[in-house]
Design brief:
593 residues, Amidase signature (AS) enzymes, 2 domains, 11-stranded mixed beta sheet, 10% strand, globular, binds 2-acetamido-2-deoxy-beta-D-glucopyranose, AS_sf, signal
Amino acid sequence: MMPSVASCLLAAAAAAWSLASTTTASSDNDTDTLVTQQIDNHPYPYDFPQLGANGTDIFPMRLCNGFKLEEASIDEIQVELKSGKLTGVQLLECYFERIYQLQPYLNAVLQYNPDAMEIAKVLDEERQRGIVRGPLHGIPFLVKDNIASKDKMETTAGSWALVGSVVPRDAHVVYRLRQAGAVLLGKAALSEWADMRSNDYSEGYSGRGGQCRNPYNFTVNPGGSSSGSGVAVTSNQVPFALGTETDGSVINPAERSAVVGIKPTVGLTSRAGVIPESTHQDSVGCFGKTVRDATYVLDAIYGIDPRDNYTFAQEGKPPRGGYTQFITKKSVLKGAVFGLPWLSFWQYNDPTQNAQLVELLDLIRSAGATIINGTELLSYKDIVDPQGWNWDYGTQRGYPNESEYTYVKVDFYNNINSYLAELNNTNMRSLEDLVQYNIDNVGSEGGLPGVNPAFASGQDGFLASLATKGIMNETYWQALSYCQRTSREDGIDAALHSNGHNLTALLVPPDFGPTYQIAAQAGYPVITLPAGTNKESKMPYGLALMGTAFSEATLIKYASAIEDLQVSSNTPWKRTLPTWSGYLDRNIPLINA
Ligand SMILES: *[C@@H]1O[C@H](CO)[C@@H](O)[C@H](O)[C@H]1NC(C)=O
Ligand SMILES: *[C@@H]1O[C@H](CO)[C@@H](O)[C@H](O)[C@H]1NC(C)=O
Ligand SMILES: *[C@@H]1O[C@H](CO)[C@@H](O)[C@H](O)[C@H]1NC(C)=O
Ligand SMILES: *[C@@H]1O[C@H](CO)[C@@H](O)[C@H](O)[C@H]1NC(C)=O
Ligand SMILES: *[C@@H]1O[C@H](CO)[C@@H](O)[C@H](O)[C@H]1NC(C)=O
Ligand SMILES: *[C@@H]1O[C@H](CO)[C@@H](O)[C@H](O)[C@H]1NC(C)=O
Ligand SMILES: *[C@@H]1O[C@H](CO)[C@@H](O)[C@H](O)[C@H]1NC(C)=O
Ligand SMILES: *[C@@H]1O[C@H](CO)[C@@H](O)[C@H](O)[C@H]1NC(C)=O
Ligand SMILES: *[C@@H]1O[C@H](CO)[C@@H](O)[C@H](O)[C@H]1NC(C)=O
């Protein structure tokens, strides 16, 4: 056996080197131990997936210094760290080892932080001196590659166009996680430019990162655009990750990866240092295996940041002491009153999935909650496309002045130029430059339709934005105010108060995209919980809680209560481990199923 691969930071190099050795080494009776210890004569089951294996056995996770790290919660990891049975450095090595095992298959990591070991070491030393910064001390994490880190790593939104660019500073959220003692392990794969660039594309693909795949089914859309964040957490490559959302990019990959996703109210988490899409809707969100894990992350990153004036809106809103105190048990479901906007969303969701979700709703009811059917958004007929997610539905109805895409296109043109203006060491200064780059590098960046199978429509999203020249005209303002009104007071708030009720939250099926889409337009929070898997595709789906602006404390409270109910009741409608279905499949584009 070769020594622990994890002790080597240069993963790719190490892997290539040991494979090369394997092909020339021929016998068990070599006596040069330098050579023999590099030979892997026991490839199964940890280093190679064995043909014919199935289920979780395909990619088992090694014990970490005797500790079962797979599926361990952040609290459970902290117990090990506190007892001294595991150091932060060892923990990081175990996660690197897991990443090396899975990277050729899932491709969820875009880049490793070469300083991660050093950071973990410093945090171990702090702990030895009695300093523990909080629940994330020594815990490794990934951030989506559109979140700036002022270190040795690139920040590129998955595009070759930004390779080499030097960011001015850490994104606020990254800075805050460093302060909380978390260990930035690397950058997570994503759909390039967070899906702003194209309207017909392979989800989870980027020119720089290639195709990220979902461990429940390798041939279908893994969820995006924070694909790597969801995939890495569900496959135990990191305990938590950050993603970003403009319209679904946290909730969608979280629910398709059977993890908890928190998309906060726009303005609760600073977007400063995040490659933008729309200032009106962008939000940084959290991925964890449990509500508690994800909430630890939210507590570390929320707050006012002078560099993002949307964060001033939270003044006085977050509960004193943060959100973790709201994590609770199923008993609080007694007295909760949830609403089901059935006609608005549920009626359009997959019926087989609905039948399973209704069993989960029955369970929630049996725990003492009241669930009121028919709590609708007043405007659902105009704003919800029965076919599914569609951010240009207004235009398709004949009203560009009532379409989300109308203002997102304009915002992107302006917001990306502001982001680029702060970069050093790049020739990319405008959306025009990015469009030209994608044409000049068409083979890898698919700047023209039909060249790169992952970007079937080329860069039509960029071109649509370019055509607006960022002009905020009458149509823009009408569309913005229409989408905000119909999703807020005539939308989610109306549903929360339908028939004079004061609902605790709305329960919705996030696999039907318009759920998180309407919350995105409103800038309102969503939490998704794993809720089961689809029999045919093997793909997970979630149950989501929606509420009004800055209602995170309520959503976290009831999401954790439902999660407790799921775990304690033995229901099948909860988080399950990856099944690795089709793990040798590599076709692009992925199918939307
Ligand atoms: C093992 O060593 C013996 C003695 O040196 C040699 O004859 C034999 O060919 C070796 N076997 C292999 C498979 O290399
Ligand atoms: C997985 O393999 C085991 C042992 O070979 C077998 O008993 C089981 O039925 C298989 N499960 C599936 C889902 O194929
Ligand atoms: C860019 O580089 C210049 C010269 O080194 C420096 O003064 C400036 O602060 C840098 N700007 C950013 C945004 O890092
Ligand atoms: C934030 O600042 C920009 C530019 O100064 C301004 O146009 C915008 O209205 C401000 N937004 C908020 C929410 O304060
Ligand atoms: C909710 O009401 C609709 C009719 O509006 C009905 O079709 C659906 O089955 C109901 N759902 C539940 C969970 O009761
Ligand atoms: C506003 O600009 C868009 C292009 O971005 C254009 O389609 C629309 O007609 C313009 N509206 C007005 C009122 O000029
Ligand atoms: C959009 O334009 C149509 C006319 O084409 C108008 O009837 C409608 O009221 C406008 N919508 C908004 C939100 O202003
Ligand atoms: C809902 O809340 C409002 C304002 O707090 C209150 O006036 C009303 O009585 C409440 N309705 C119900 C059904 O509890
Ligand atoms: C992946 O999902 C597709 C679409 O539902 C399905 O046809 C296919 O059988 C699934 N793949 C595997 C290996 O289960």
